[in-house]
Amino acid sequence: MANLHIPATLKTILLSAIVFITSCTQKKKETVTTNTSENISNILLEEWEGPYGGTPAFDKVNITDVKPALQKAMEINLKEIDTIANNPEAPTFENTIVEIEKSGADFNRVFTYYGILRSNMSSPEFREIQKEMAPKLSEFRSKISQNEKLFQRIKAVYENSLKTPLEEDQQRVVQLIYEDYAMKGAELDQEKKQRYAEINKELSELYTNFSNNILADEEGYVTYVTKDQLSGLSESLINAYAKAAKDRGHEGKYAVTNTRSSMAPFLTYSNERALRKKVWENYYSRGDNGDKHDNNDNITQILKLRKERVELLGYDNFADWRLQNRMAKNPENAMKLMNAVWPAAIARVKEEVADMQALANANKDTITIEPWDYRYYAEKVRKKKYDLDSDEVKQYLQLDKLREAMFFVAGELFNFKFTPVEEGKVPVFHEDVKVWEVNDKTSGEHIGLWYLDPFARTGKRSGAWANTYRSHTTFDGKKTVLGSNNSNFVKPAPGEPVLVSWDDATTFFHEFGHALHFFASEVRYPTLNNGVRDYTEFQSQLLERWLSTDKVIDNYLVHYKTGEPMPKALIDKVKKAATFNQGFGTTEYLASALMDMKFHLADPTNLDVDKFEKETLTELKMPKELVMRHRTPHFGHVFSGEGYATAYYGYMWADVLTADAAEAFAEAPGGFYDKEVASKLVKYLFAPRNAMDPADAYRKFRGRDAKIEALMRDRGFPVPNLK
Question: How far apart are alpha carbons 318 and 151 in whole angstroms?
Fold first, then answer.
């Protein structure tokens, strides 16, 4: 075709027209997208794209998208629920339960981003959005849980299933959904429903305030030390503290941040007692400083509202309501277990303190053991009694090697293979995050992706945890797992390895156990992935045991400089000292668990939180030389949400199962790598998730119920008479 000559003036007019038409067309498209009830132009709402069945677009998250995305996602979900509730056809499993399981996909995608910003990347701007959205999210959830028409359909399906049973997993999902709605007030009259929803809204604001106050105190209290105050600290720890100070604009100093991973090693090794006390006070006074970030009033209000809410349902206290569908069934059973272990734990503390005081006296340290001395002198006793130096052990505990060890264990027990994903192929929310593909070693089948976010940073909550961004299901097309582990290891100086304590290595394995529980799931329906709180810690606690197996020690616990495996003599010392300091570990944990339960069994009227904590611990004969693992004003497990409220005991309940199951492996011909026991482990304790009753699942694995005697033997305590 011949080229046509167009005059310049006409060309300008034509180009202007094209630009105008294109602009109008684009605006029309945008208007259509924005006004469509199913979507808006917001990256957080979009279907996940890319390989591996699609992954979150973490690299495109903009904080300004969060609020509108949540609002739209809630709107979409409520319409889905209304459609199910108003279905003119008689309620069936397919048109009610399956449709409920399908609903909420948009909301779940948005909430995945919200959860990352809340836990891993919080900022002052996000916290303002969080404060605004918390009550709105609560109202949204109440509209679903209190939808009368929806509940009547659920109830009809549940009652029909009792007459004509469904398939086992279908029966289980119906039961769980029905019980969940009933526990959340679905059968209340309208006036009580309204108050129930109001309480939830008030609680959501209090939970947000509580968690933000903890984060503020973690960020606001940093102990800076000078070069002449580093006595006792290892070179790698000094370098890490130097980097933390530099990152905060204090180059030339050393920063002990207000997190457990930074605090604990300082209290263990620093020779500066006054600084140990300061670091200890900063950490254990979080949320309890009498300022705008003080949490005591929040706790009182939370306890009052929780009690009022369960009274609407006919319960005397929050604990009775919460534990009805847990393994413990009621607070009496939970207290029975804790009270059986408590005397042995505090008796052991008395022995540990006597050993420490004797050593301090022998050294002519004119002190009486205080809480900020416990870790320091316990370490010295460990060296003297077992000739075991924790810092020497750390030289063999490299984070990267521990990760490889976890992959090895996953391959041996679960037949999983972990392969690094090429950088940039999968979006991540921070440069520290790395991703691995998980496949079946034999078939090559894609199982999911594992995200690892290992280091502490500003805006990240303390501790270690696991998350799922997408759970395994098959009822609506197979969904592969997107799971993550998140830790707060102190980031090393460039080129330095990350060396961790034995306790931190154990925690790393523990959280990976949660991830393996996600990846091993073989359930059809999403609800069946929801764990029972005093059971789901069992799988992760059990995985800790493989850290001290010979195959892991011989192949992965190697010296960070020489590459030599941990010497047998040192291994023997570690194993011999396995029950060392169990008084401290058990007592600090149990004190928190007992306080959790006692707070929720008490009358919250006119409750003075600090006074109640002090008086209750005195009644329990709590040793003065240590404190609760989580003091009440920063007990986020219990007061920044409801997941562990009256359920913190669950770690010990699960540890009974753990100790008993570990003995099953120890007794097997192949030990901890016995193929037959491993197969039963995966089949009955990991793959079913919540598709069968946890007690039944454990009996299928072990052939009987778990016994507390295994726990007591495991901790080196005398076995109590439980009759």
Answer: 23
76 SS3 class: helix
Shortest CA distance to 256 belongs to which of 280, 273, 286? 280
- Percentages (nearest 5) of helix, strand, coil residues in the chain: 60, 5, 30
From 675, 704, 715, 243, select the one nearest 456 (Cα to Cα). Answer: 243
C-alpha of 189 from chain center = 35
pTM of the model: 0.85
| Distance in angstroms (rounded) separating the CA atoms of residues 618 and 346 | 12
Start-to-end Cα distance in the chain = 100
Among 629, 616, 561, which residue's Cα sits nearest to residue 589? 629
Contact yes or no for 482/55 (Cβ under 8 A): yes
Q: Which two tokens stand for residue 19?
A: 């630009």
| Cα separation, 591 vs 594, whole angstroms | 5
Nearest-angstrom CA–CA distance, 714 and 266: 28
- Record the tokens describing residue 595, joined without a space: 């306080």
Q: Which amino acid is at 681?
A: L
CA distance 394 to 391: 5
Residue 600: name the closest of 589, 616, 614, 587 by CA: 616
pLDDT along the chain (723 residues), means of 10: 34 36 37 37 94 96 96 98 98 98 97 96 94 95 96 98 96 97 94 96 96 95 97 94 95 96 95 98 97 97 98 96 94 96 97 97 96 97 92 95 98 98 96 98 97 94 94 95 96 90 95 98 96 91 96 96 94 91 96 98 96 97 97 97 94 96 97 98 97 96 95 88 56
How far lies 68's CA from each of 1, 11, 387, 417, in Å?
Answer: 51, 42, 60, 39
Residues 531 and 130: their CA atoms lie apart, in Å, by 26
CA dist., res. 160 & res. 190, Å (int): 26
User: 567: which DSSP letter?
Assistant: P
Radius of gyration of the chain (CA): 28
